[in-house]
Design goal:
By secondary structure, this protein is an all-alpha fold. 68% of the residues lie in helices and 0% in strands.
Length: 191
């Protein structure tokens, strides 16, 4: 709903985008709860982590068309294509949007640094939750972040949260159940 009036598009599938964003939020929230972290904003951070993509897709569709074509042609991440074509990435654009909305600093940093959580100046924990949430959502194939790449969680995120890839593997079924539960709620809201 929030983006339906943005008629210009470079071709980002907004339906799949929101499914992916919800899955990232669900996973970030699951991780926070499993690790007994007091991070009630983790779901919101996951939902908004890629907002810069929506802005670039709608407001800079000429440039973003080239980004999406490069992703498809070269089978690279959307992050790499954004940096190559535009010289900045969706995290930077998302940060500007979050600042203009005067969102709390932890949400701004989650959006800005979810690909580089150790760069967060004040709160690398929430950026780490979103980074790992993004990697897991992509691994599970839930929705689309705009490309087919499946990144590993950033080593700094794993270190910050003091978890291992093995732990994430052990939690995968529970994470998938949490994602599916939230996906069913999202599908009700879309009707």
């Amino acid at each position: 709903e929030a983006t339906k009036d943005l008629e210009n598009t470079a071709g980002l599938d907004k339906g799949e985008f929101w499914v992916h964003s919800s899955a990232v939020g669900s996973t970030a929230r699951y991780l926070a709860e499993a690790l007994k972290l007091d991070r009630p904003e983790s779901y919101t951070a996951g939902i908004i982590h890629d907002m810069g993509k929506i802005i670039m897709d709608a407001l800079y569709s000429d440039f973003y068309t080239e980004v999406l074509q490069k992703v498809e042609k070269e089978n690279i991440s959307i992050l790499k294509a954004e940096e190559d074509v535009i010289g900045l990435d969706h995290g930077e654009i998302g940060k500007e949007l979050c600042e203009s909305w005067q969102l709390p600093q932890e949400l701004i940093e989650a959006v800005a640094y979810h690909h580089r959580p150790s760069s967060a100046e004040k709160d690398s924990q929430i950026a780490s939750l979103v980074n790992i949430g993004d990697a897991i959502a992509r691994k599970l194939g839930v929705g689309s972040g705009g490309d087919a790449t499946v990144p590993e969680p950033h080593p700094a995120a794993l270190k910050k949260l003091d978890i291992t890839l093995e732990q994430l593997q052990e939690w995968e079924e529970d994470i998938k159940a949490a994602v599916d539960r939230d996906k069913s709620i999202l599908s009700i809201l879309q009707k």
